[in-house]
Amino acid sequence: MYCLKPTKVFALDVVKDDADALERMTRVLSAIGVSEGRVSFFSRKQAYDVAREIGDWPGDSLAKGACVQYQRPLVFTSVVIGRAAKKDPLVARRPDSVPGGILEAILGYITLVKNTHSPGDDKRRNMVCWNTQDFGVMTGCPHGCQYCGDGRNGKFIAIGCNINEYMEKVVGPVIEKHPGQKCFRMIGWGADIITFEPEYGVFASFLTKLAQYENHYGYFHTSSDNVGWVKNVPHRDRLIGVWSLASGKVSRVIEPGSPTDVARIEAAAKCEKWGVPVRFKLKPVIPVRGWREDYARTIRRVFERTRPETIGFCVIMWMDFETLGKMLDLDVLDPEYVDEARKAAGRLKGIRVGPFPHHVRAQIYRFLIREVRRWDRKIPVYISTESRQMWYELKDELRQDPRRFVCGCNPIEAPGPKMLRSKHLCRSTYFYQPQAGRRS
Questions:
Q1: Which of 127, 209, 261, 417 is packed most tightly, with the most Cβ within 10 A?
Q2: Alpha-carbon gap, residue 281 to 52, rounded angstroms
Q3: Helix 261-273 with 291-305: angle, nearest 10 deg
Q4: Sequence-separated (6 or more) residues with CB below 8 Å from residue 264
């Protein structure tokens, strides 16, 4: 796992009473050289004080010269199964001085499963994706991606440790409740779970559970290069690796604490050597100065070192122009595109695909498609969580039906890639109404 240097380590006292949870915590602590004597165990009665302390991080606690993101406090907890946070009196009576999100996470109220990209939600937000049930046992990340709220401003990482219980009471029942879904993401929330492997052991447990079901597979979705654990993980044949891949400049300047593009590609090459299918998402694509040359180098490296099953793109979105200026140094970006985003700011405010207007994103996608086709003319290419209008415009260039497209981590895309369609799940959330209005 990553060589983290947390300024403080906390653990909810129930972790000590669960052999599985305690063992996982002990393995992680041992890997980063933290003795159990340094762990501040706390009871539910002390949770308010712990949440306040974490909310005040970092204060003057940071070590000079060390990666800031690696110093975030760690909180080991047990995920709460079968009770909502709002039903907990401790949460309901929280004083205003106690950060609510922190309190819920350290008490173990981490979202267990999320119904992602439901057709209704995607229709409302004008997005195209696949409806999936996603799993998570962690919140927070050791990376510092500046466009990500957790990466930029995160104060802690909460780690659910009762994984055996989670697999039996959550993962198994969800698999059985959704017979159409064959591929599941263990993704966490603002998290990169594999940065804690193999000591955390989530994927060993997850793949073992998936192996109990025919034709079921698990994704890791990562920006990391921490893949040594993959070589010997049980049921490796059930694993699919998906990388969020930045260009060289973006990885160095905008994603502190994350490996470079070259390191991520080399990690994928190792997984490929061990028989694990690999897929790439250039997500988010950020048009920095010189972006064409920068992304062209990264794409070339992908095909020099790997043979990915798919490759996709998503231009940075999820924000308005004002937020973009707060997240990133606009001087780092292509000045022409910054000007286009500035001119479109009023029209795109509150629109999910902002801050860059449709024609700018289309230009970027067409360039990236051409670069990929230079190296592999047959690989499935897609755009991720884009608008219906963008899919309608680019579907012929992408050579994919937006209703049933192959992507990076859809719920029926087995290794190959092979689509395991069924009456339960056979299409994406795409639909198109030309009269719906102007492009975004």
A1: 261
A2: 37
A3: 20
A4: 223, 224, 225, 243, 245, 246, 251
* 355 and 324 Cβ atoms separated by less than 8 Å: yes
CA-to-CA separations, 178 to 137, 244, 355, in angstroms, rounded: 20, 27, 36
What pLDDT is stored for residue 169 in this prediction? 98
CA of residue 52 relative to chain centroid, distance: 27
Residues of the chain above pLDDT 70, percent: 99
**Angstrom distances, CA of residue 22 to CA of 18, 36, 165, 304, 400:** 6, 11, 13, 43, 48
CB-CB contact of 48 with 94 (8 Å): yes
Strand order in the sheet with 74-77: 39-42, 9-12, 74-77, 157-160, 138-139
CA 104 to chain centre: 21
Residue that the structure tokens 């064409």 belong to: 292
Q: How far apart are CA 297 and CA 86, in angstroms?
A: 49
State the CATH class of domain 110-139+163-431: alpha beta
Give the span between the Cα atoms of 34 and 20, in whole angstroms.
Answer: 19
Residue 424 CB partners (closer than 8 Å, separation 6+)? 178, 179, 180, 181
Q: How many CB atoms lie within 10 A of CB 3?
A: 10
Q: Supply the pLDDT for residue 440.
A: 77
Q: Label each residue of 89-112 as H, E or C.
A: HHHHCCCCCCCHHHHHHHCCCCCC
**Would you say the pTM of this structure is higher than 0.85?**
yes
Please name the residues in contact with 80: beta carbons below 8 A apart, sequence gap of 6 or more: 88, 107, 108, 109, 110
User: Residue 116 is encoded by which pair of tokens?
Assistant: 């992602």
How would you class 116 by CB atoms within 10 Å of its CB: exposed for 0-12, middle for 13-18, buried for 19 or more? Answer: middle
Confidence of residue 114 (pLDDT cuts 50, 70, 90): very high
Would you state the pLDDT for residue 435?
Answer: 54
Residues contacting residue 213 through CB under 8 Å, at least 6 positions apart: 175
Q: Are 363 and 315 within 8 A, CB to CB?
A: no
**Tokens, residue 135:** 């799993």
Query: Please, which residues have CB within 8 angstroms of residue 14's CB and are 6 or more apart in sequence?
Result: 21, 77, 78
Cα distance between residue 312 and residue 358, in whole Å: 17
Interstrand relation of 39-42 and 9-12 (parallel, antiparallel or unpaired):
parallel
- Distances from the Cα of 200 to the Cα of 205, 240, 414, angstroms: 10, 19, 25
